[in-house]
Specification:
It contains 10 helices and no strands. It is mainly alpha-helical. The termini are far apart.
Length: 166
Amino acid sequence: MPSILGRYATPFITGLFIVSLISGIALFFHIGPSGFHGMHEWLSMVLIVPFALHLWKNWRSFLNYFRRLPMGIALGASMLVALPFLMPMGTGEAGGPPPFAFTRAILANPAQDVAPMLGMTSDELCARLGAVGIVVADPARPVSEAIAASGKPEMQAIAALVRPAD
């Protein structure tokens, strides 16, 4: 392996791990800028490259860990604590962070009921959604149905509904 890769693998692992650590903590506590989500996902993917280089550089030492009990214990414990996150819970629908679950609960109501909550008429709500390609054929039907039928992202609908009036 070229020496430049060997010299930089561990420092990049360290730097990217710190970024992942900070953004992960912020995501867990729902604090910080919205950019933390993309940062955490993408830079965690980038972290794979220096990790692979680090393994390549230290392959023999790494294999020695598998000859000892602590590696087996650590891998087994890691899998055990990860398993509950893969188990189906409740209805099978993702609730997500409380603000997302709250928004989905609001959008499950008819357009005619949601509009006054946003300080607009049902016609205004339908027009705003229509402007982004979400057709509300019947204001007595849930807004979430119109969003699903349109194939548009829920966030696009929410953005259209909460933007300031023109």
